[in-house]
Fold:
Amino acid sequence: MNVGFRNCIIYHVFGMRDYTGEIGITLEKIVEDFILDPKINHVSKEEAADESVVRLELFDKPIIGYASANDELFEKFKTDEKITHGRFIPPREWMEDAKTVISIFVPYSKQVKKGNSRNMREPSKEWLHVRREGKNAIDKLSQHIKEILTQQGYLCIAPGIDDHYEEIIGTWLDINRPLTNSDYGSNWSQRHVAYVTGLGTFGLSKTLITKKGVTGAFTSLITNMEHEPTKRDYQGIYDNCSMCGACINICPVKAITFEGKDYTRCSKFHDEFEIKYGPGNGCGKCQVKVPCENGIPKKNQ
Ligand code: SF4
Ligand code: SF4
Structure:
């Protein structure tokens, strides 16, 4: 599938001049300024579930990784059924002229993580806000970066907010057979993309363990801007996971084992919260009170 071929001449080196004309601004600074702006990063009085979460800070300082759009791992994700069940669309099929994939990890704030540690079965108010207002903020960030790159003369697609983005959640489907892990996934997996861009590796809980931990949100962009790829300082998909098993013990429905994760079990549990609190709400207990919450755990942790 080709979803985005357009012609363009690259005439700027990104980072020399920003959209306001300022010299020397970097993409890292633009991302940080946008997401940490209190108008984006704080829950307003109107949105807040109660007084205790008015002005709740949602996010911490982001990190960014870059990969070549031609990285062979992208093609592997498409063709290896076991990895993304054949759904993954590589960058060059989203944009024929793609040169670079940019992945952004925005860690959740200390307050959000602490909030979700209070009750190890139900999502906290803080967690619900980061899943709702935080998700909106990440979508706005994707749009913002896309617009800036476009203003700089580059082609840019943010698959997570693109019309061609498809996500499949098995428990929402009308399937007359037992669900399996292959009934879940998307055509652009943010965690797999982040892995390619050097941001981190998977853990047993199937979250991505970055140097800022597992608890946060991802977005990514495909562009014809050239950028040096970030060095991946790992070889294996679980290199950053200490295999401590803490997430196995914490999961309220025992969806995680050393052999793998049962997405149906996890998703069915989330459905309870979807009904109670609205779409997009999950429990996230495997991401708090674990050695990988805030960073890469030591191997003996
Ligand atoms: S809690 Fe332990 S086993 Fe689970 S993902 Fe984190 S480091 Fe890996
Ligand atoms: S999100 Fe919740 S249900 Fe799903 S694996 Fe993590 S702890 Fe278990």
About this structure: The pocket of iron/sulfur cluster (ligand 1) is lined by residues 203-205, 241-247, 290-292, 297 (CB under 6 Å). Residues 1-23 have pLDDT under 50 and may be disordered. DSSP finds ten helices and ten strands in the chain.
